[in-house]
Every structure is written in C-alpha cells, then in structure tokens.
C-alpha cells in the first residue's frame, strides 16, 4: 500500500456534445481515500451520476470527457490512469478494481437470464481459469454472503423482491473483491425498512473487505448517516466537501445550507415548514387506541 | 364543514392461485375541513388503495365511505358533485397532465365543467389560480406541460385541483418525484392554500419527516391495517406500535445521529 | 403448467371456432353451386363423392343441421375435405398436398432467412448506432416499399431475360418428373432462387428496422450498462444482454409472418408462375371451386394457429416472465 488515497480525480470535465453543449461536470477534483465511504450529494442534473460514469468511462455519446484525469492507485502500488487505457485494458479494469451498484431495483439485472448466469459471467470474463463448478460455487457463496441464499442461483430477477435484487447487485459487485464500489442511488427505489437493511449490509461488508465506496444519492440525510466525507455537487461543480459531521453542523456553502434545510428533521424542529397543527378530531389520549 | 369518514372499510383482492388478499382491513378514520391527515406506510401497505377508493377506481368490499354522512355516489350529478368536492393531486405531475394541451386548457376545463364561474370570467379565474400557485400566468398559460419544470408542473396540477373549489384534497406522494430543494416549497404552498380555503387534506406518503411536519395526525398503515393513529408529533416522537418504531428508526435522522457520540460511517 | 393448460384451451377453442365457421360458410352462400355442378356432370360422379359433397355443403336436407355437423367432423377426421370441381374431382386434400410443399419450402425458407439476416443486421446497426452502418436502413426500407410484383418483374428482366442466370418461372423444368435426384434438386434451387431472393429483399427492411429500434431502446436499459461495467466483452454484451432482449418482440412478428406463408404469397406465385398454395387459391376462386377454397381456408387458418402456438412456446422458453405472469 503506497498511499492512503485510492482514486485521484483531477480537473475532470464532461460535456454533452449537443447544441448548445451542456457542461455536465465542470473541473471536478476529488480524492477517494482507501476504505472510506464518500458521499456524492446533489439534485437531479447536478452531474453526480455523470461524474461516476465518467470515472468508469461508461459514458455514452453525446457525453464526452473534455478534460482531466482519473488515476487509480492500485494496492499493488501501480498508478492506473483511466483515461489512457485501451478498450481491452479498460474492460479488465472494470469490476476487477472498481465495481458498480445501480439504482434499478428492477432494471439493473437482465430480465431473461438467471441471476446465477449473471453472477457467473463476471468470473468467466475476469477469471477464465476458473472451472464451471468453481464459478457456480463462488456465485452461490456470494449470494449466501448477502443473505439471498445460493438456492436463488436459478431464479430470474422478476422472482425476487426489490430488496433481494439489490442484494444480488451487491453480491455481484463484491465478486472480484474490488477496491472501489460506486453506488448510484442504490436504495432510492426501496422502502425505508429495506433501505436500512441494505445500508447496514453495505456497512458490514465494507468493514469486512475494506473497499472504498462512492455513494451517490440526493438523499442527504441518508448520506449524513453513512458517509465519512460528503461532496455536494451543483451544476457540475463540487461546491463543498467535508466530513459528514462538519458538513451537517457547520456547512460553509449557501447551497449546502439550502439543501440541508430542504430535508425536514424527523425528530427535531419543523425548520422551514409553515404549517402549524390544526384541529384534531382525536381525543388527546387516543394515540394508542389501535 | 365537510367531513369524510371511513368506517370499517375492508378491501379484498382476488389473487390468482393465492386466494384473497386483504388490501385494507377494517380501516376507519375521519377527515374534516382544515385538517391534514398523513397516511404513512410502505409500498403494499394499502395507502394507494385508499386513494383508489376515494377516486372510485376501486369499490370497497365492506364498510362505508361517507362524505358528510352519505355514501360516495356512483353516477350522475351527485357523482359530479362528489368529484368537485374531493380532488386529487398525483405523484407524477407529468403523467397527470396531458402533453397535448396547454396549461390554460388544463385549468379551464374544470372551471367550465363545474361552472365554477360564469363563462366570461373563466380567463380571469385561470389567471388568479396560476398566480395563487405562484406561477406567472403570462409566462405559463399558453405553454404545454413539457415546457415546464417538474415543480411548475406540480403547481399546475395543484391549481387544476383547486379550480373547482374542492373541500377535500387527496395528495398522493405529491412531492416525491420533485427535486428535493423544491419539495418544501410545494408543501408549504399546499399548506397555505389549505388554510385559505379551509381544505381537508389527506397526505399520502412514505416520508415520515414531512408527514410529521405537514400533518395534524398520522395514520400508519401496515398490511392493510391501521397500526397506529395519533397526533403527528406523538406518533413520530413516542411511537406506540413496534412497526411505527421500526419505520422511525429506519428513517435517516442526522440530528439524532450526530447528537449521539458515534463515529462517522457507523450506521446503527 | 397452468399457463400451458390455458393456452391449450385457448387454441383448441380457436381451432374449433375456425372449423365451425368453415362448416357454416357454404351453408350461408347464396345459390347452390353444388347442385348446378352435379347437374352438369350427371353420371360422371361416384355416389361416395356426391355424399361427401352433400355433407360438406349441407345439401343433406334429410338430416338435421346437428347431424350434418357431426358428419362434417367425421369427414374432417378421416382427412376428407371433399372433391375439387376444377381439378377433375380430385380429392381436395391431394390437390392441396401437391401445392403446399412448394409454398412452404420456398416461402418458409425465404422467411426464415429474411428473419435471421434482418434481425442480425438490425442488431448490429442498433449496436453501432450513429455509425456508417446506419446507411443500410434507408436502402432496406426502400426495397421493402417497392411493390413486390414490380421488383419481381425487374428481377426477371435482369437475371432471367437479360443475363439468363435463372429461369423465369415454374418450380422445375417443364417435362421433368419430380424425383429425389441431385439433378432435380438443382433445378428446384435454380427455379426457386429468384422468387426467394425477391421475397427476402422485400421483407428484410422490416426486420432490420424493427430490430434496430428495439436495440436502441434496450441499449438504454440499466442492465446493458451493468454488463459493460462488469467488463464483459462487447460481443457478449451485444448477444446475451442487448440482442436477446431486443429480439423478443421480433419473435411474435416472425410467428405472424410464418402464419401467412400459405395464404400471403399470391403475388410472388403469380409473378413467377410458381405452383404454390396462393396460386391454387386464386385458381379456386376464379373457378368457383368451393370445396377447394374451403379446404385452403382451413389449411390457412390452421397454419396461422400453429404459428401462434410456436410463437407462444418460443416466448415461454426465451422470456421467463411470461411463464410466471400466468402462473
């Protein structure tokens, strides 16, 4: 291990090559530390997803990386510049070093092939030496690890609940023990109880395997609870980056403050809410009548 | 004073191969003018079944739904009057507005159909309504939904719902598809309009935090049953039912998180 | 299992309805072509043939409609579709049997080739959207909008009349007897090449366009991005993730076009004087040969039905969601 940094993104810019061009990510510099959960917060269209896709070079035309670099500091000590790899090198890098978990509780899994096959093709691509039996065994082990159970190898995505599908995605992302996991709104489509379970699972797995996480979501309260550091993005730029506690207790940027104020506190004051309690038809002590 | 009453409402669905599914199990509550009740629960809890019953997409299997003491009419003029009295605001402002029509058309329609104002005052009323939801009438009236932002579209949907001067508003996740920074604005706007017209609001949501601050009462639904119903603050701050407690503890709460001396990154 | 039972019941009902309509149709026709025909050819028709004609056309006034219906089914099950007026009272089954293989062979092979080639090209163009490959689309569309008879005539003018590469008409050389020899097979291929080629070119555009558009939709799906993020080889992403999903809607169109093989290739068979079922149907219509028309109608209905069953089976195999939805 050479440094504590895992990924250094410098002056990274992405444009959508339409008329007029849209600068989705502008001159972003950010460092992901080894083993940390870095939150990337912002509203839709702020460029947070584009930045993550850009790091993995997954952008589709008309999006183009216009400048900047992303250097991955491998645990072997090598520095890998993501922009200079050819297609084959990039494919070998993907998932091996950095995997992804997508939002789509529904759409991130191919609906017409089994979960087992989708897990196993990670191994057949990246571990060609593995036998068919080993691939299957390892895939089953991964499903056991995330609590889905190896019996589900033969299931199709639609046979699983949203939470289960997301666990399958996490199992898949873990397959090659990557050093970085990019999670794009991984719990947004899920109910809050399921969301909590998934978040705890991610946290446990990170403690066990030590990977770093870039966690992308618009749900700032959630990020505040799970992240070590949080970067707030707006209009393609990072407007503020700090530890979760500092960002919450002492935000420096106006937009960060506004974003924080947009989320009412669950147990605290009403904040910006104008409404005051009106008439209630309930007797004062009727709260627990059910 | 208008009162909407659910009395022991049960809704069963037949599920192929699985017999019957209880979507609502003896649900009772009363919503009156000026009051906001939040209906909270996860997907499949029965929240949307209640909305469907109120919009008459579904019939109850047993029990009564009464508006000022009379059952929801099923046809003719009484039904029209019911629909004028109870209005919906949907989750997806894009899907609920017709992309082919201008904003003017959307708001004029209920005004003319329900004969809210004399024909020669319709234009004026459209302007008033748009202004009321803080849209610039000159800039929006001749546009089509896709030319507006999500927040603007939802304001149009609210203006349309208010056009026929309803007494009760059913707001089904009205802000969950909007950008976070404008959610509060839209809820505050709803609250203002509510106090002006003394509207009763049924706020259907999965978000406990907004439910608490936006409503007088919270009703927690779980598998079709009301497991807890009480004053908003009490339900959230001192939940009596395990399920409510579980929901509350699962919801992110940075304030509590940072108040406790936990290390950043720990989740539980 | 339930799914298959339901589908089976559905198809059994459809088949029954089609056959029953076939039973009632001649009974609703105005006039009585059969009696007229029988009178014209008195004495030359065997008593059995008369009986079967009477049953099929409901002239058996001594029997109730229900008895006629039962008889009709019995005839069907014994493979008796009556006698063809225009083909010297040959059994309709024989007449149809002699035409069907030509149609099914030629048009069937052309349809399969067109589907496979068109879908593959469409998948590739969709995959490489925005590249030069897109240029194929307008060309293919052009050919599918050209009226078929026109394209057929031009093909004959160029490849047959001018260049002399292929014969202009018929399924094999005049004067040869069909046999299972290499020479005869060579003739069949030579004669079938132009009709098949024109059919393929005429229908290719639809397959290409349909598949390309589906590909573009599917390529935007998250699971395709996931497959790419997994570092899978592009060929694997293309085949296992994108094309497999995109081709599902193509399958139902394919089944439909298989169903229309027997009835839908009249123009081709006319242009190339090909002795198939389409031409037979035209002959039967002009000759007012009702038994033959009735038999052809039945065969066409049943092929459409069989094609739909095949599509259902293919869908159930390829798309696991269909199986569950019905369960």
From TrEMBL, chain A:
Database matches in SMART domains: AAA (SM00382)
Any one GO MF annotation of this record: ATP binding
Location(s), subcellular: Cell membrane
InterPro entries (alphabetical): AAA+_ATPase (IPR003593), ABC_Ni/Peptide_Import (IPR050388), ABC_transporter-like_ATP-bd (IPR003439), ABC_transporter-like_CS (IPR017871), P-loop_NTPase (IPR027417)
Membrane topology: Peripheral membrane protein
Alphabetized UniProt keyword annotations: ATP-binding, Cell membrane, Membrane, Nucleotide-binding, Transport
PANTHER family assigned to the protein according to its UniProt record, in alphabetical order: DIPEPTIDE TRANSPORT ATP-BINDING PROTEIN DPPD (PTHR43297:SF2), OLIGOPEPTIDE TRANSPORT ATP-BINDING PROTEIN APPD (PTHR43297)
The name this protein goes by in its record: ABC transporter ATP-binding protein
Organism: Cryobacterium arcticum
Organism lineage: Bacteria, Bacillati, Actinomycetota, Actinomycetes, Micrococcales
Automatic annotation (TrEMBL), chain B:
SMART domains referenced in this protein's UniProt entry, alphabetically: AAA
GO term, biological process aspect, one: transmembrane transport
Name recorded for this polypeptide: ABC transporter ATP-binding protein
InterPro entries membership: AAA+_ATPase (IPR003593), ABC_transp_ATP-bind (IPR050319), ABC_transporter-like_ATP-bd (IPR003439), ABC_transporter-like_CS (IPR017871), P-loop_NTPase (IPR027417)
Coiled coil: none
Gene Ontology terms for molecular function: ATP binding; ATP hydrolysis activity
Taxonomic superkingdom: Bacteria
Keywords (A to Z) from UniProt: ATP-binding, Nucleotide-binding, Transport
Every ABC transporter domain range: 4-248
Species, as recorded: Cryobacterium arcticum
PROSITE patterns: ABC_TRANSPORTER_1 (PS00211), ABC_TRANSPORTER_2 (PS50893)
Automatic annotation (TrEMBL), chain C:
UniProt feature coiled coil, ranges: none
Ranges for domain ABC transmembrane type-1: 100-311
SUPFAM superfamilies xref list: MetI-like
GO cellular component: plasma membrane
Protein keywords: Membrane, Transmembrane, Transmembrane helix, Transport
Membrane disposition: Multi-pass membrane protein
GO BP field: transmembrane transport
Gene3D superfamilies the UniProt entry points to: MetI-like
PROSITE patterns according to UniProt: ABC_TM1
InterPro entries: MetI-like, MetI-like_sf
Family: Belongs to the binding-protein-dependent transport system permease family.
Name of the protein in its database record: Peptide ABC transporter permease
């Amino acid at each position: 291990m050479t440094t504590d940094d895992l990924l250094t993104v410098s002056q990274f810019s992405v444009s959508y090559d339409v008329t007029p061009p849209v600068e989705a990510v502008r001159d972003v510099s950010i460092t992901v530390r080894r083993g940390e959960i870095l939150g990337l917060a912002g509203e839709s269209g702020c460029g947070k997803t584009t930045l993550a896709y850009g790091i993995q070079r997954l952008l589709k035309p008309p999006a183009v990386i216009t400048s900047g670099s992303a250097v991955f500091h491998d645990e072997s000590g090598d520095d890998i510049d993501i922009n200079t790899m050819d297609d084959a090198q990039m494919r070998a890098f993907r998932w091996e070093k950095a995997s992804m978990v997508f939002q789509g509780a529904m759409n991130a899994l191919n609906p017409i092939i089994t979960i087992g096959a989708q897990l196993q093709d990670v191994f057949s691509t990246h571990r060609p030496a593995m036998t068919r039996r080993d691939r299957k065994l390892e895939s089953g082990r991964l499903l056991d690890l995330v609590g889905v159970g190896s019996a589900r190898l033969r299931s199709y995505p639609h046979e699983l609940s949203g939470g289960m599908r997301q666990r399958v995605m996490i199992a898949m992302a873990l397959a090659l023990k990557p050093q970085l996991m990019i999670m794009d709104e991984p719990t947004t489509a899920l109910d809050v109880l399921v969301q909590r379970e998934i978040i705890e699972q991610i946290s446990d797995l990170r403690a066990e395997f030590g990977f770093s996480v870039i966690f992308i979501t618009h749900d700032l309260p959630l990020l505040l609870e799970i992240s070590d550091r949080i970067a707030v993005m707006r209009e393609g730029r990072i407007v503020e980056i700090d530890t979760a506690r500092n960002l919450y207790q002492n935000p420096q940027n106006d937009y960060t403050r506004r974003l924080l104020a947009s989320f009412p506190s669950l147990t605290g004051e009403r904040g910006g809410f104008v409404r005051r309690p009106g008439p209630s038809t309930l007797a004062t002590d009727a709260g627990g009548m059910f | 004073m208008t009162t909407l009453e659910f009395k022991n409402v049960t809704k069963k669905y037949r599920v192929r191969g699985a017999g019957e599914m209880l979507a609502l199990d003896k649900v009772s509550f009363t919503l009156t003018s000026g009051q906001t009740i939040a209906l909270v629960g996860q997907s499949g809890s029965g929240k949307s079944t209640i909305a469907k019953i109120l919009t008459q997409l579904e019939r109850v299997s047993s029990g009564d739904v009464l508006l000022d003491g009379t059952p929801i009419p099923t046809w003719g003029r009484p039904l029209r009057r019911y629909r004028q009295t109870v209005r919906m605001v949907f989750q997806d402002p894009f899907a609920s507005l017709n992309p082919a029509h201008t904003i003017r058309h959307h708001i004029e329609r209920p005004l003319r159909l329900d004969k809210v104002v004399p024909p020669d005052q319709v234009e004026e009323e459209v302007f008033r309504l748009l202004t009321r939801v803080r849209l610039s009438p000159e800039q929006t009236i001749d546009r089509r939904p896709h030319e507006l932002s999500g927040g603007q579209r939802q304001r149009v949907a609210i203006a349309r719902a208010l056009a026929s001067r309803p007494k009760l508003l059913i707001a089904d996740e009205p802000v969950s598809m909007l950008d976070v920074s404008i959610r509060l604005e839209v809820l505050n706007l709803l609250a203002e309009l509510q106090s002006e017209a003394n509207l009763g609001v049924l706020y259907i949501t999965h978000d406990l935090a907004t439910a608490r601050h936006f409503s007088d009462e919270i009703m927690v639904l779980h598998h079709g049953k009301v497991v807890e119903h009480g004053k908003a603050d009490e339900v959230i701050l001192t939940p009596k039912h395990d399920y409510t407690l579980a929901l509350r503890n699962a919801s992110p709460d940075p304030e509590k998180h940072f108040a406790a001396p936990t290390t950043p990154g720990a989740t539980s | 299992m339930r799914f298959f039972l339901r589908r089976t019941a559905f198809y059994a009902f459809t088949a029954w309805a089609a056959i029953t309509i076939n039973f009632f149709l001649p009974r609703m026709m105005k006039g009585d072509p059969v009696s007229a025909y029988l009178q014209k050819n008195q004495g030359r028709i065997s008593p059995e043939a008369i009986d079967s004609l009477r049953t099929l056309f409901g002239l058996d006034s001594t029997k109730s409609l229900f008895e006629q219906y039962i008889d009709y089914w019995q005839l069907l099950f014994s493979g008796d579709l009556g006698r063809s007026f225009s083909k010297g009272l040959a059994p309709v089954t024989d007449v149809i049997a002699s035409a069907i293989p030509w149609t099914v062979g030629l048009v069937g092979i052309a349809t399969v080739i067109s589907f496979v080639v068109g879908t593959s090209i469409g998948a590739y163009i969709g995959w490489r959207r925005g590249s030069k490959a897109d240029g194929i689309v307008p060309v293919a569309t052009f050919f599918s909008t050209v009226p078929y008879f026109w394209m057929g005539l031009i093909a004959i003018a160029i490849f047959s009349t001018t260049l002399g590469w292929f014969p202009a008409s018929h399924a094999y050389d005049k004067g040869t007897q069909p046999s299972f020899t290499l020479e005869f097979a060579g003739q069949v291929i030579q004669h079938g090449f132009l009709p098949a080629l024109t059919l393929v070119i005429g229908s290719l555009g639809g397959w290409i366009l349909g598949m390309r558009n589906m590909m573009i939709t599917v390529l935007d799906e998250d699971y395709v991005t996931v497959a790419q993020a997994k570092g899978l080889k592009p060929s694997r992403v293309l085949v296992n993730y994108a094309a497999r999903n995109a081709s599902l809607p193509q399958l139902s169109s394919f089944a439909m076009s298989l169903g229309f093989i027997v009835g839908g290739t009249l123009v081709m068979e006319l242009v190339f004087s090909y002795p198939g079922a389409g031409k037979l149907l035209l002959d039967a219509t002009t000759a007012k040969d009702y038994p033959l028309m009735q038999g052809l109608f039945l065969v066409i209905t049943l092929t459409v039905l069989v094609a739909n069953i095949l599509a259902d089976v293919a869908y159930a195999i390829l798309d696991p969601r269909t199986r569950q939805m019905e369960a």
